[in-house]
């Protein structure tokens, strides 16, 4: 398994941004209309990310990361991601396959479009993991995430919060999963990068030609699956002993 060096972890998926306090979220705002789990609870929302290389459909885990999902959907519903780009493709040095690494997209701190930052939802709280096709938020310090996010390929669980040291290693806020179009992610991660562009952990990972995101919109959730029909109950055996005819004389 390839891993990025831990000293650069805090900068691995961030952009230059002023560290400003996260928006306080009330319990009502955190759920963003989500109902408690159980009968009648709505399905997690899905979004469709359209690019020149194809579309990526992502399920957003509102039931697990409500603050992060509500923030992402605010950008989607206002059309703020339309015209943004995937601008970064990160793979380990010398690694030529397309099954490990990440692509990063978003608004790159466009002051005309970014909304206030949000509270951090660590994976120790949400129970999510950074694996194949996970979508997660870029940030500086916890509580600075705004409008830049990344999709991972392969096992990148080192980006999860460390349950033994949640303050020292808070990880990144995973909040969804690619359900269609993982091949598009693999296409983007293989595109040429400029060896001289980028700063810090991002140096050499900036795409020569960023991939334009033409539109991100809500996608229809799949219909709820009906439970399988119950198997027909087999008749119970008669517990009484079988009557036997008396032997013939």
Describe this structure in words.
Residues 1-39 and 239-249 have low confidence and may be disordered. The chain has 249 residues and is an alpha+beta fold. The chain has an eight-stranded antiparallel beta barrel with strand order 1-2-7-5-6-4-3-9. Strand 1 and strand 2 form a beta hairpin. The longest helix has 12 residues, at 66-77. It contains four helices and nine strands, in the order αββαββαβββαββ.
- According to DSSP, the number of beta strands is 9
Radius of gyration: 24 Å
Dominant shape = globular
Share of residues in helices: 10-25%
Which runs of at least 5 residues are low in confidence (pLDDT < 50)? 1-39, 239-249
Keywords for this entry:
single chain; 249 residues; alpha+beta; 4 helices; 9 strands; globular; disordered N terminus; disordered C terminus
What are the SSEs and their pairings?
Layout lengths: L26 H5 L14 E6 L2 E7 L5 H12 L7 E6 L10 E6 L16 H4 L7 E4 L10 E6 L20 E7 L1 H8 L3 E2 L11 E14 L30
Explain briefly what this protein structure is.
Helices cover 12% and strands 23% of the residues. The chain is α+β, with helices and mostly antiparallel strands and 249 residues long.
């Amino acid at each position: 398994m390839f891993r990025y060096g831990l000293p650069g972890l805090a900068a691995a998926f961030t952009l230059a941004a002023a560290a400003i306090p996260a928006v306080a979220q009330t319990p009502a705002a955190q759920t963003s209309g989500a109902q408690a789990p159980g009968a009648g609870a709505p399905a997690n929302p899905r979004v469709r990310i359209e690019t020149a290389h194809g579309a990526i459909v992502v399920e957003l885990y509102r039931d697990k990361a409500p603050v992060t999902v509500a923030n992402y959907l605010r950008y989607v519903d206002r059309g703020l991601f339309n015209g943004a780009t995937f601008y970064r493709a990160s793979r380990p040095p010398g690694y030529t396959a397309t099954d490990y690494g990440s692509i990063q997209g978003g608004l790159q701190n466009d002051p005309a479009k970014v909304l206030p930052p949000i509270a951090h939802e660590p994976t120790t709280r949400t129970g999510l993991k950074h694996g194949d096709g996970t979508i997660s938020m870029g940030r500086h310090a916890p509580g600075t995430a705004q409008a830049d996010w990344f999709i991972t390929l392969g096992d990148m669980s080192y980006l999860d919060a460390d349950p033994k040291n949640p303050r020292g290693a808070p990880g990144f806020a995973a909040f969804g999963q690619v359900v269609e179009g993982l091949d598009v992610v693999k296409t983007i991660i293989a595109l040429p990068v400029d060896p001289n562009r980028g700063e810090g952990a991002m140096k050499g990972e900036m795409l020569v030609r960023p991939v334009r995101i033409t539109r991100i919109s809500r996608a229809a959730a799949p219909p709820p699956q009906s439970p399988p029909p119950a198997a027909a109950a087999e008749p119970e055996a008669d517990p009484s002993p079988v009557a036997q005819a008396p032997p013939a004389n």
